[in-house]
Design a protein that fits this description.
The protein is an alpha/beta fold. It has helices at about 35-50, 65-70, 85-90, 100, 125-135, 150-165, 175-185, 195-200, 250-265, 265-275, 285-305, and strands spanning about 25, 55, 75-80, 105-120, 140-145, 170, 190-195, 205-210, 235-245, 280.
C-alpha cells in the first residue's frame, strides 16, 4: 500500500518566516522539458517568495532523489523530476531512497504526452489498423526508443501489453536519432513528442495516429487520443513534478504549493509552456500523490513484465 504524507489542511503560512535563505531546486539535465519549466518556476518563485530559487541540474534517473533523501525536511531543498524517480525501484536493484516513504508531493507541474506516429510505408491510418497489422505479423514491427525507461519506452510497452502484440523495441542514444530513423523508414513507429514530430506529420513524412494523453491535448490540437482512436483505457505521458523531503512542515508545503500552482495556472505560464509542447498543471499534493500511486500500480507492473532494467 502506497501512502504519501500529503498536506490537505487549509493554508496556515501567514505567520511563517519561510523562506529565510535561497531554495535549491534539483532538476534533471539542462535543456529538457523539466529544466525549461523549472527555470520558469524558479524565476517566478524568486519574485513571489523574495528569495533566490537556485536550479541545480543533475544527471537524470535517480541522482536527484539520492540528493534529496539526505537533505533536511525544511523546504530548502526540493526536486523537480519525472516518473523515472518514483518508478526507479522497479528498474534498479539498489535505490537509496523509497519514493513513497522519503518524499512528499508538492505539485505535479507539467505533462508532455507522446504522439504515436508511423512511417507512411506501413500503410496504416488508424490505431485499429496498426493493432491488426501487428497481430498479423508478430515480431515484424519495431518501435524506436530514445532512452530506457523513459516516456516513449513505457508508452510503447503499455501499447504492447494492452494490445497483446509483439513489437520490438529498438534503442537509441537520444530522441533525435530515434526519430530520424523512423522518418527514414528504418524503424516503423515511435511514440514521439508532439513538437519533434509535428513538422514531419505536416510534410507527410510521418502519419500521426493518436496522442497518448487520457484527454485530447492542446500540444497536439485536432489529434484524437489513442484511447478514443481504438485502444480504450490507454494513457501515458511524461509527467514531471516537484517533491520535498518527507517531514517538511505543512505550512511550508502549503506556501510552496500555493505559489507554484498560481504560476502554473496563469495564462503566461500556460502559453509559454504550450509553445514548448508542454502542458502546465499545478495540481494539489493529494492529486499528485494519487497520480504517483497509479503510476506505481500500472507502470510498475509493465516494467516488471517487460523486464525493463536501468544501469
Amino acid at each position: 500500500m502506497c501512502s504519501f504524507a500529503v498536506n490537505a489542511a487549509p493554508a496556515s503560512d501567514a505567520n511563517t518566516k519561510f523562506p529565510l535563505k535561497p531554495i535549491r531546486l534539483i532538476a534533471s539535465g539542462a535543456g529538457g522539458a523539466g529544466d525549461f519549466a523549472g527555470r520558469l518556476i524558479a524565476a517566478e518563485l524568486t519574485q513571489r517568495l523574495g528569495q533566490q530559487i537556485v536550479i541545480d541540474n543533475r544527471p537524470g534517473g535517480v541522482t536527484p532523489g539520492e540528493i534529496l533523501v539526505k537533505a533536511q525536511p525544511d523546504g530548502y531543498t526540493l526536486m523537480m523530476v519525472g516518473f523515472v524517480v518514483w518508478l526507479s525501484p522497479f528498474m534498479r536493484d539498489h535505490v537509496s531512497f523509497d519514493p513513497v516513504r522519503d518524499f512528499t508531493p508538492v505539485s505535479l507541474a507539467i505533462s508532455s504526452p507522446n504522439v504515436l506516429v508511423v512511417h507512411p510505408s506501413l500503410r496504416v491510418r488508424s490505431v485499429p489498423e496498426l493493432i491488426a497489422l501487428a497481430k498479423q505479423k508478430p515480431g515484424a514491427l519495431n518501435y524506436a526508443v530514445s532512452g530506457i525507461g523513459n516516456s516513449n519506452h513505457l508508452a510503447g510497452e503499455m501499447f504492447k501489453a494492452m494490445t497483446g502484440t509483439n513489437i520490438a523495441a529498438v534503442y537509441y542514444r537520444g530522441a533525435s536519432l530515434a526519430l530520424t530513423d523512423v522518418v527514414g523508414g528504418r524503424v516503423e513507429m515511435i511514440f514521439a513528442t508532439a513538437n519533434s514530430s509535428r513538422s514531419h506529420v505536416a510534410a507527410g513524412r510521418l502519419v500521426a495516429l493518436g496522442v497518448t494523453s487520457a484527454q485530447p491535448s492542446p500540444v497536439a490540437p485536432g489529434l484524437p487520443t489513442v484511447a478514443s482512436a481504438g485502444l480504450p483505457g490507454y494513457e501515458s505521458a511524461a509527467t514531471i513534478g516537484i517533491l520535498a523531503r518527507a517531514g517538511t512542515p505543512p505550512e511550508v508545503l502549503n506556501l510552496l504549493h500555493r505559489e507554484i500552482a498560481r504560476y502554473l495556472q496563469s495564462p503566461d505560464a500556460k502559453d509559454r509552456l504550450l509553445k514548448a509542447g508542454i502542458e502546465a498543471l499545478g495540481n494539489t499534493p493529494a492529486e499528485f500523490a494519487a497520480i504517483m500511486r497509479e503510476d506505481i500500480r500500472v507502470k510498475g507492473k509493465i516494467i516488471r513484465d517487460a523486464g525493463i532494467r536501468m544501469e
